[in-house]
Write a structure and sequence with these properties.
Helices cover 2% and strands 44% of the residues. By secondary structure, the protein is mainly β. The chain has a domain of 126 residues: Sandwich (Jelly Rolls), CATH 2.60.120.10.
């Protein structure tokens, strides 16, 4: 059963430079009723102030998807990647056997607003990897746009899990449906 959970019911953290809303238990927010949904472990709605960010830290055995809603986010990691993501861009980092990375808002006067989504992989101990792609507004306007998938279908990023993540831009009057087969 799918249950609507309003934003005001989610966990919240305000660190001054970071404001984060947690859909599932994360960091200091713990709610045994909301730990994860199948392999979906984290959906955080994050806003980072201009010139601020997350220092270098490590991850293992997790597929970490970042989706920039506004502003810019600088990514640097131990694999040698160092790219800026702008509005509409998606980054997928496969942490696998371990990766160190940092995320930073490089803009001097604008916050970055992004979604951070963690999906548990279907195989542990894979080689770490990094992918980044811009999905234009035209690709999402009034329709589902596949961002990540286990087979890189339709130009999506390759996810190490039997899951698909979509995005759409709707004008408020548009409606979309999606059939889920079990």
């Amino acid at each position: 059963m799918i249950t609507l959970r309003k934003a005001s019911e989610r966990g919240h953290a305000d660190h001054g430079w970071l404001k984060s809303w947690h859909s599932f238990s994360f960091a200091d927010y713990h709610d045994p009723a909301y730990m994860q949904f199948s392999s979906l472990r984290v959906i955080n709605d994050d806003t980072v102030q201009a010139g601020q960010g997350f220092g270098t830290h490590g991850h293992r055995d997790m597929e970490i998807l970042s989706y920039v809603l506004s502003g810019a986010l600088q990514h640097k990691d131990s694999m040698g990647n160092g790219k800026v993501m702008n509005y509409g861009e998606v980054q997928l980092m496969s942490a696998g056997t371990g990766v160190q990375h940092s995320e930073f808002n490089p803009l001097p006067d604008e916050d970055v607003h992004f979604l951070q989504i963690w999906i548990m992989p279907n195989q542990l101990g894979i080689k770490p990897g990094y992918q980044q792609k811009n999905f234009s507004p035209a690709e999402k306007r009034g329709r589902w746009c596949l961002l990540v998938s286990p087979d890189a279908a339709q130009g999506s990023l390759l996810l190490h899990q039997d899951a698909r993540v979509f995005a759409a831009l709707l004008d408020g009057k548009e409606r979309l449906s999606y059939s889920i087969s079990i």
